[in-house]
Design brief:
This protein is mainly α and about 120 residues long. Helix content is about 85%, strand content about 0%. It is built from six helices and no strands. The two termini are about 20 Å apart.
Length: about 120
């Protein structure tokens, strides 16, 4: 996928993160507090927003330096798995089968950062 398309995906993913943060702070706050999940929800939102920005920054860099989009895929899929599973688990959805997605997402996020670092070292 072209860098500009990835940038647009990152922007949309950030917008979704802002919306989910607002829902967690307002519309779903009481339900999340009742379940003791407000801090977990905030963690999911924080990681989603940070990695939406990471996706945008990486692609802005890649647009100038060239290279593969592997880190972008890691940032997107990793944050969907990590944050998405946290969101579902906060409401008790999919406990029996979604829990492995959280650590898998975390590993993908780390792979994204490591491959971004590797790409930046290899490029002039």
């Amino acid at each position: 996928m072209r860098a500009r398309n990835w940038i647009a995906v990152g922007c949309l993913w950030a917008a979704v993160g802002v919306a989910l943060g607002a829902f967690g702070a307002h519309a779903w706050k009481a339900a999340l507090e009742e379940r003791g999940q407000l801090a977990n929800w905030d963690t999911g939102v924080r990681y989603q927003l940070v990695h939406a920005l990471a996706l945008i920054v990486f692609e802005l860099w890649r647009e100038r330096a060239g290279g593969k989009s592997f880190p972008a895929w890691c940032f997107l899929v990793g944050s969907v798995c990590f944050s998405g599973s946290i969101y579902a688990l906060c409401f008790g959805i999919g406990k029996s089968f979604l829990w492995p997605l959280t650590p898998l997402g975390g590993v993908l996020l780390m792979c994204g950062w490591i491959s971004f670092a590797s790409s930046s070292i290899r490029r002039p």
